[in-house]
Structure formats: structure tokens, C-alpha cells
Amino acid sequence: MRPSRNGPPPPTPPRVPPGPRRTWRSRLARLDVKGAPYAFISPFYLVFLIFGAFPLVYTLWVSLHDWELASGTRKFVGLDNYDYLLTDADFWHATVNTLGIFAFSTVPQLLIALLVANALNRRMRLPTLFRIGMVAPLVTSTAAVAIVFTQMFDKDWGMVNWAIGLIGIDPIQWSSSRGWSWAAIAMMVDWRWTGYNALIYLAAMQAIPRDLYEAAAIDGASRIRQFWQITVPLLRPTIIFTVIISTIGGLQLFTEPVLFSVGTPNKMDGGPMHQFQTITMYMYDNAFGHDRYGYGATVAWALFVMIIVFSLINFLAVRRTGGTK
């Protein structure tokens, strides 16, 4: 049966009152909640853009030019500087020197730092004094350190040649021989940075629960086995960090070899035969010594790529060795 057309109309739905209008204060409060975290971290990105990203991009732009500071030449040459770099024997000679000094210094440095940190982690008298002594090389002037080590490795009057002469070894020409100069500079680097890495390892070791060592001691594990089976595996993230930082510092080595060449006509040559000239020294010599600013920027970018590649290789090697994912 159909409803009558003259029946009562259907009830109308209740009218919902409109919501409160957003005022400028509510909008400002909402903006403050959402934008405050970005405002807090913005100083870092501003500093990075000014002192990190911009110089990086600008150096890439300069490397594409025949750029001379004295004459004001600004000629775009594209990738010609990079083509020349690949066939530049002096650049590859400096690369071999850098990698040699890096290998001589970094591997012993991290191993000694790990052993020193393990010794400092044990109970001893005056532990704070010994730990503070680890940072003494860092607060010492690099120039003073280089002068002392240069005198120590002097061929005629150096203390090292005097000491090895007591056991019948002939004097070594530390600054003239390629391999021996690498070893001398590596000792200088190790003396300065071993304590720094040891303190990093020590801080990580103190975060390891002591219960693990007590349980291992109850099971009959010696201290050496505890070190290799407990300490080293749990220090793997810290070891990766120090390896990457040491790689960056080792490939950028500049101050120590420059000061080691005191007395030579051009300190950036790294000796008369360029036997310890590093990439940074070669870059500086081209940019400011020979007024080849564009090619110096090319060497800088090659070093930047090399640091990234070697850091990734070291990271993957350490991670694969430890079996982490």
C-alpha cells in the first residue's frame, strides 16, 4: 500500500554546527609543533651547505677549467684535466706513496690501540693518569712532533741510527729511501693517533657486560681467548668506525710528510725523488706552487672518490670478516 502524498514530510537531519575557525594563534602553534624539529637541526645543514657542499660543488666546477690564479685564466676544458690525470705518472707515484704510508701506519696503529685499550681496561693503579697520558700526543704541536722525529731519524746524528748501530746495523738513510721514509712517517703518525683510537676502544670496552667475562672465566677461558672471543666481536661496530676514520685521515696525510722534508728546497716535493710525496702534497704543489688551480681541483676530486671507495672497501671487509649483516 502506497503512502499518501499528503502525509507528513520526512524529518530533517539535525544541523551540525560549524567547527571553530582557525585563528592565527592556532596555526602558529601547529607550525611550531611541526617545524620546531627542523629548526633545531637546521644550523648543521646550513653550516654543511656553506662549508661542505658548496666547496665540493665549486671544486668540481673549477676542475673542469684551465684555471690559473695569477693570470686570471678561466677557460672551460671539460674533462681534459681528468684525462690527463689518468696518464699522469707523478699523480700515480704520489698515490702509491700515500697508500704505502697508509698501510704502514693504519694497520699497526689500530692493532696497538686495541691492545693498549685492553690493558687499560683492567684493574690497575692510577688508571686515570694512564688514560690521560693517551691524549698527550694530541695536545702536542704537530710541528714540534715532526721536528723531534726528524732529528731522531737523521742519518748522521739521529738517535734511531745510533741505537741500531749498537747492534751492528749500518745507518739507514731514512729521508732518502722510499720505504724507510714511509716507515719513519708512519711511526710519527702512529705516535700521534694510537692513544686517540685506544681511548675510543676503551670507552666501548667498558660498555661490555662484565658477566660475560665472569662466565667465560668459570668455563676455563684464558684472558687471551676472552679477548678474541668476547671483546673483539663486541667491538666490531667501533672497529669499523675507527677503520673508516683512519682511512680518511691516512689518505689525506699532509702535515707529517711536509714537516719531515725540512731542509729540502721545496717541501711539497716529498724529497729529491718524490719518495714520500702524498696526494695532498701533490695537489697543493699543483694548485699553488705551479698555479694550476684547475688541475689541483681535479686531484682533490680524485682523492675524494678514492676516500669513498677505500672506506667502503674497508667497511665491507671488516663486516664480512666479523660475519655481521
UniProtKB/TrEMBL annotation:
<feature type="transmembrane region" description="Helical">
    <location>
        <begin position="129"/>
        <end position="153"/>
    </location>
</feature>
<protein>
    <submittedName>
        <fullName>Sugar ABC transporter permease</fullName>
    </submittedName>
</protein>
<keyword id="KW-1133">Transmembrane helix</keyword>
<dbReference type="InterPro" id="IPR051393">
    <property type="entry name" value="ABC_transporter_permease"/>
</dbReference>
<feature type="transmembrane region" description="Helical">
    <location>
        <begin position="91"/>
        <end position="117"/>
    </location>
</feature>
<feature type="transmembrane region" description="Helical">
    <location>
        <begin position="234"/>
        <end position="254"/>
    </location>
</feature>
<feature type="domain" description="ABC transmembrane type-1">
    <location>
        <begin position="95"/>
        <end position="316"/>
    </location>
</feature>
<feature type="transmembrane region" description="Helical">
    <location>
        <begin position="35"/>
        <end position="61"/>
    </location>
</feature>
<dbReference type="InterPro" id="IPR000515">
    <property type="entry name" value="MetI-like"/>
</dbReference>
<feature type="transmembrane region" description="Helical">
    <location>
        <begin position="293"/>
        <end position="317"/>
    </location>
</feature>
<keyword id="KW-1003">Cell membrane</keyword>
<keyword id="KW-0472">Membrane</keyword>
<feature type="transmembrane region" description="Helical">
    <location>
        <begin position="180"/>
        <end position="204"/>
    </location>
</feature>
<feature type="compositionally biased region" description="Pro residues">
    <location>
        <begin position="1"/>
        <end position="20"/>
    </location>
</feature>
<keyword id="KW-0812">Transmembrane</keyword>
<feature type="region of interest" description="Disordered">
    <location>
        <begin position="1"/>
        <end position="21"/>
    </location>
</feature>
<dbReference type="Pfam" id="PF00528">
    <property type="entry name" value="BPD_transp_1"/>
</dbReference>
<keyword id="KW-0813">Transport</keyword>
<dbReference type="GO" id="GO:0055085">
    <property type="term" value="P:transmembrane transport"/>
</dbReference>
<comment type="similarity">
    <text>Belongs to the binding-protein-dependent transport system permease family.</text>
</comment>
<dbReference type="InterPro" id="IPR035906">
    <property type="entry name" value="MetI-like_sf"/>
</dbReference>
<dbReference type="GO" id="GO:0005886">
    <property type="term" value="C:plasma membrane"/>
</dbReference>
